[in-house]
Sequence to fold (215 residues):
Amino acid sequence: MEAKVISLSGKEPRTIELSDAVFGLPINEDVIWYAVTNELANARVGTASTRDRSEVRGTNRKPFSQKGGGRVRHGDLKANIFVGGGVSFGPKPRDYSYSIPRKEKQLSLKTILSLKIQDELMTIIEDFTVESGKTKDLIKVLSNVVDIKNPERTVLILKDDDPMIKRAARNIPWLTYLTYNRLRAHDLFYARRVIMMEGASAKLNEFYAKAAKES
Fold:
């Protein structure tokens, strides 16, 4: 499939060839859900903790007599129905992370990329760098494809680990940067605009072609 490449110098857009195996897949909502849910679960800290009645500090004496008071029997004040008592079935520290098959993860990312192309939410631009590492210089570049006055949740896909671009992007609240070989399904799926470098598109074609051969 063909896609337009936006020039930063103001020249007429040109076209490049994108792999249908990466950017032209049918939309599989199930595999997207599994990948996004997996990333959210892996990001959970899992430190929530409550005390049950055996861990609450307090007396072991009976709160009142077993019989004769007209009230229900109780063993001690640490029961869960009393203020300051233990919590029944409360959370304990645990690990929420789990893994999904590599092929399923790759399929979800390719499906999301295809979805963004189909919904016309992806823009491919010429490769660039920000030699100064300054936020204002990066915003000047992005202003060619993004409405800076009314920005939306945007993901920038880099062709390599460019430290200067990453440094410049840290202070832009609506921008998330991802390298082509370390994409995140959650960020891509919920982005309202995806900006991909031309070099990143070529490397994605090679990366997933290589992964398909290895599998």
Observations:
- Residues 102-118 form the longest helix (17 residues).
